[in-house]
Amino acid sequence: MRIYLGTSGWQYADWRGVLYPVDLPQRLWLERYAESFDTVENNNAFYRLPEEHTFAAWRERTPEGFVMAVKASRYLTHVKRLKEPREPVERLMRAASGLGDRLGPVLLQLPPTLRRDTALLAECLECFPPSVRVAVEPRHESWWEEEHAERVRDALAAHGAALCWADRASRPIIPLWRTAPWGYLRLHEGAANPWPSYGDAALAAWVRRLGETWNDEAIVYVYFNNDPGGAAVRDANRFARLARREGHILG
Question: What are φ and ψ of residue 51, in 5° steps?
C-alpha cells in the first residue's frame, strides 16, 4: 500500500517552532512543508475558492510528485447543499486545474445537518470528470441507517468515490466501508495528552485497519486535521514511522 500522508492545511501560526523555524517568513512555509510531507489537504478552498492562478502558483512552489487534495467549496456543500451542482463543480474544477499534475482528490465534506439523499449525492458526483478522485464525508447519521446503507454504498461505488473514513477521540465515527479502489482518511482529534494528540495505540490501530483493507497496489490518502499546537505535524510523523515499520510505502 502506498500512503500519501500530510495535514489538513499548512498555514498555522502555532506551527512555528514545530515545523517552521521561528525566523522563516510565512511566504516560504509551503516550500518548507513540502520538504516534510508529500501531500496536503487544502482547506482554504472550502471557505473561499482561490483563483486558478493561485492554484498554479502553489503548483510551482511544490516539488514533482507532491499532491494537493482540495476541499470543495462550502458554496457547493453547505450553501447549495449539493443541489444544482454542475456550475459549482465546474467552477471548482476550473480553478483547481491550475494544480496540473499536483491535483489530488477532491473532498466533499457534507454539513452535519444534511440528511441522506442518495439521488442528490449521485447527481453531484456525476458532475465531476471521471479522472478526478472524489472522497465524500457525510456527517448526518441518516447516511448509515441500515435499510439505506446499501444504496449509499452503491452510489459511491458507481462513481468510483471513496467514503472518507473519519476519526474523532481516537475512534472511527463512520462505518469503515470500502467503496473505491483507493482510500481517504481524516483524523480530526485524538484522545491522548496533550490535546488533541493521538496516542501510539490509536495510530497503530489505523495503520492496521488500512493494511487490512487495501492491498499493496492501492493508494490511500491520510490527513491529520488536529492542527492546534502542532499536534498534526507530530502525529503525522509518528504515523509515518509506524506505517514504514509495517512495510507500507510513503509518498
Answer: -75, 160
pLDDT tens for each residue of the chain, 251 residues long: 999 999 999 999 999 999 999 999 999 999 999 999 999 999 999 999 999 999 999 999 999 999 999 999 999 999 999 999 999 999 999 999 999 999 999 999 999 999 999 999 999 999 999 999 999 999 999 999 999 999 999 999 999 999 999 999 999 999 999 999 999 999 999 999 999 999 999 999 999 999 999 998 999 999 999 999 999 999 999 999 999 999 999 98
- Secondary-structure class of domain 2-250 per CATH: alpha beta
DSSP H stretches of helix in the chain: 29-36, 44-47, 52-61, 74, 86-96, 118-126, 146-158, 200-213, 231-245
The residue to which cell 458526483 is assigned:
125
182 near 153, Cβ under 8 Å?
no
Q: How far is CA 12 from the centre of its chain?
A: 17
Q: Please say whether the beta carbons of 1 and 250 come within 8 A.
A: no
